[in-house]
Amino acid sequence: MTPERVEEEPLELDWLQLHNEMNRAAGVETTKEKLFRKIKENPFVPIGCLATTMALCYGLVSFKRGDTKMSQYMMRSRVAAQGFTVVALVAGLGLTAMKNP
Which is nearest to 78 in space by CA: 94, 101, 62? Predict the structure, then answer.
């Protein structure tokens, strides 16, 4: 009987672990950290997105119920919330550009 050579095979995800370690050593932020940093920098954009989503959902519910007056009101509110979001985004970009010349 000949003894079989058992070679240790590296784990399939070793490259992923190495990538994460290198990013941490280089100070690269994770996606979650970047999301929270962006929300802190400009909190009005997520607020506008939530307001837009809520107006859209409630408007669709009202439409399904047959309450056309409320449905129209909520669709107009959605447009206003979208406008608020765009203005907040542009203002945030402007402030960031002024902060980092």
Answer: 62
Range of the domain at 49: 31-99
d(CA 62, CA 67): 5
Provide the whole-model pTM: 0.66
pLDDT tens string 43-76: 899 999 999 999 999 999 999 999 999 999 999 9
User: 38 in a domain, yes or no?
Assistant: yes
Task: Tell me how far apart the alpha carbons of residues 7 and 24 are, in angstroms, rounded to a whole number.
Answer: 31
Indicate whether 60 belongs to any domain: yes
Overall domain count for the chain: 1
